[in-house]
Design brief:
Number of strands: 4
Helix content: 25-40%
CATH class: Alpha Beta
Distance between the termini: 35 Å
Shape: globular
Strand content: 5-15%
Largest sheet: 4 strands, antiparallel
Mean pLDDT: 88
Order of helices and strands: HHEHEHEHE
CATH superfamily: NADH Oxidase
Number of domains: 1
CATH topology: NADH Oxidase
Low-confidence stretches: 80-86
Structural class: alpha+beta
Oligomer: single chain
Radius of gyration: 18 Å
Strand order of the largest sheet: 1-2-4-3
Length: about 200
């Protein structure tokens, strides 16, 4: 994929990329996507995010095993929830980089909820948009949360933090065009709920 400079084009071309080329991602590019993530809005400016960058093949294999186990449990033999037609999904062992987005959990709740999600998911979106602007591909995955304890064990994530997403990062195997979305007007209401927009 080509880099994108115009922000309108960037939004229109962000796609879920699940198939990655056998090509490394330079650490300077990883640093750029992480810098973008940390510029996201955050509730009360708490900036509760932490990111674990995984390149180690053994760690990727363990994460991939837990993820695939969660997919099998959820989807059975129905294709693993790939979600879209296109190239086959690259196993995590062959994805150049996995970025695990973690979030500090407020002590009063003991689990990630609305407030923490309101901070970590904008950070994930910034990361993914910066990646796309650089010509890289990503996809937001959350299925690993069905194996939360195992993921935390593999990565040594301490109490007080939760994993919000695992984002594979790499060079796509093919070019991707614009995402397919209905016009904004079809899901937009004015002043009050419109039953026609349900």
């Amino acid at each position: 994929m080509q880099p994108i400079e115009r922000v309108d084009d960037l939004f229109a071309h962000q796609r879920a990329v699940r198939a990655f080329a056998d090509r490394d991602v330079d650490e300077a590019l990883v640093e750029r996507v992480l810098a973008a993530a940390t510029r996201a809005p955050s509730g009360s400016n708490t900036q509760p995010w932490r990111f674990v960058v995984v390149r180690d093949p053994g760690v990727k294999a363990q994460l991939g095993e837990a993820y695939e186990d969660a997919l099998r449990e959820t989807y059975g033999g129905r294709g693993g929830g790939a979600g879209a037609a296109g190239p086959e999904r690259t196993p995590w062992t062959r994805v150049p980089v996995l970025i695990v987005a973690c979030v500090q959990v407020p002590a009063r709740t003991g689990q990630a909820g609305f407030q923490t999600g309101a901070s970590i998911y904008p950070a994930c979106q910034n990361l993914m948009l910066q990646a796309r602007a650089l010509g890289l591909g990503t996809v937001l995955t959350t299925m690993h949360r069905r194996r939360r304890e195992r993921i935390h064990e593999i990565l040594g994530i301490p109490a007080g933090y939760d994993t919000a997403a695992i984002i594979p990062l790499g060079w796509p195997t093919q070019p991707y065009g614009r995402s397919r979305r209905p016009p904004a007007a079809s899901v937009t209401m004015r002043d009050r709920w419109d039953p026609a927009r349900e």
